[in-house]
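Bit of a strange request maybe. I'm writing a small parser for structure token strings and I need a real example to test against, not something I typed by hand. Could someone generate the tokens for this chain?
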Amino acid sequence: MSNQVPLIKPDTFSVALVLLLLIWSFPSIAAKQRSQRLHRGDQDCVSCHQDAKHAGVSGLFTKECAICHSGSARKKPAAKFELEGNLDQLKKPADPHAGMKFPMYYEKSRIGGKPTSMVLVPAGEFTMGTNDRLPDEGPEHKVTLPAFYIDKYEVTNLQYKQFIDATNHKSPDHFRNRTFPEGKVDHPVTYVSWYDADGYCRWAGKRLPTQEEWEKAARGTDGRTYPWGNDFAITRANTPQRWMVLEQDGDTTPVGAFPSGVSAYGAYDMSGNVWEWTSSWYKPYPGNHRITENYGEKYKVLKGGSWWDCTFYKCGISAPSYNRSFFLRSTKNKSFGFRCAKDAQ
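Reply from user aminoacidic:
Good idea to test on real output. This should exercise your parser:
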């Protein structure tokens, strides 16, 4: 009797199983490659944002969005865009600059390199947070603040250049030879960490706003969803939804380019354009009993959303004023910027 092990020929089932496994794994490989393309030069979201809010959602603008975006419990109407959960009613504007007061790119600054002018936010009470969306955005509660000033615009490339030139501070990653990209003189500076933002504000004789100050300056005292009201519109802010409708690659826009998106106090771009660093640690609101290891003095809060919503990671719709994100202070990327605040004397 021969001791040779017989050769086993693969049957049809085995071949089919192998092919099925290859097909099943292909989307994840493609997704990883896409992630690398989208985030080249950026820090991986997961390393900073371990419990990403929408990790289980299958995609933007789908039925799953209604779980957080239905607005069914709100007394005032929620944004139609969020209720309908699609882009169908957001018709593509004939003019790609629809809603913008200025062109996308230009060479000479409109506002100059000095620290931007500020608007006054009066003392008093306002409504912060929401009961109807993400766990860390609630519960809705009242906050009373003293009067303060906040920058009218996000800090621009030109303004930040004055800071790095005066202090010999390291320039942002997108600068070349310590200057900003051509045509983006009045675009908000990006690729700035919390430390960079804090350093600029201190140099300018100001400080970073708290998350409470930021939200009041954006939202006013009537509890509105967006700086301009309760209905979403792609002509009022530089949001990912705008670029999706326009079918164009997104980018930052000049500060103050959307006059119809200004807040009740006169602050521009408080929805979209760039996420803005605040001085606040990422902690639960009063009455929030959600347990997460991310709360504490590890991450800083950013507010306002940006032109890029990291849709590949399904980070959700960031336009509402009550939205907040959290990252390590060392994080910097193409969608993070800031504005400063100051106590009212």
